[in-house]
């Protein structure tokens, strides 16, 4: 039992990557795996919770009052621009339109009568049979008749428009949402709940929130916010079932205002939706790629943290290590960090268990392959001893 405990402790020490021939109980120079840093191209992805909305969600509200006499569509139906959705009882509006048309005919007849009277007065005035006053009165009567005709025509246009409003039509292509009003319901322009909502889902808007730190990284990389939007690579959408949506989207806008309560800024991406798989109101994850050229990457296990700061040990020319603070990119792949400051190409860092070293400590540098080989050899020797 005791030998097993010793073997277990020995293996843990070896996994740290430092030790004389894998491990040194005497306090001598530890043997540590070291790596020389080289720039590389890195592609990372970050996922943000997102809300899906139709490119255009139009509330359908009546422009006249009345009872619904026909519901022409059902919930979930695809409709075209101009398609009739509801019919409101048109009887009173048809009567109003007929009355307005009759008023126009009456006004036109009155204008014709006054025109004849005026022409006659002009002829009589030329012969000095009537005074200029009589002529002027005839002229004013004609002008009044024409004004009445214009008013009657305006009322006719309004009546016809109201009659047309009894057929409630879709203003755009899209899909019909919930229909809270059914046959016989009384509706008016003042209703609080719309008759329905038509969502244009040929293209979908996906909204997510970036932290202020993420936004700064984005803008600094591309120079300006507008450049970041225009040059940003295509983004992906992870659906609620975990699958990736077949079509890629494009970053379209970044809000110019940071929410003071959350410290986040809203972004919007646009996705094609030809198969109508995406629906307004759905939830997903917006997957944003980050492409970094000449990036310095290090294993996360090579770092140690102190007061929310990250440090690594750099190997010096005298085989002594120097504890160095670094900053890393805000996105990682789970096992590596992209270093933004503190390290450069050509630096050599200790790879494993940096928390066991001290600043200025001397080590024996070996490659990761040599460290792994030493570990395997020692492990085999211990097995054979048993």
- Tell me the span between the first and last alpha carbons: 12 Å
Please state the average pLDDT score: 85
Rg, rounded, reads: 40 Å
For the record, the CATH architecture of the largest domain stands as Beta Barrel
Order of helices and strands: HEEEEEHHEEEEHHEEEEEEEEEEH
- Helix count, DSSP H or I runs of 4 or more residues: 6
Notes on the protein architecture:
With 386 residues, the chain is of the alpha+beta class. The protein folds into three domains: 2-40 and 294-385, conserved putative lor/sdh protein from methanococcus maripaludis s2 fold (Beta Barrel); 46-55 and 200-293, Elongation Factor Tu (Ef-tu), domain 3 (Beta Barrel); 61-196, RNA polymerase II/Efflux pump adaptor protein, barrel-sandwich hybrid domain (OB fold (Dihydrolipoamide Acetyltransferase, E2P)). It is built from six helices and 19 strands. Strands 2, 4, 7, 9, 10, 11, 12, 13, 14, 15, 16 and 17 form a twelve-stranded antiparallel β-sheet that branches. Helix 4 packs across helix 5 (225-231). The N and C termini lie close together (12 Å).
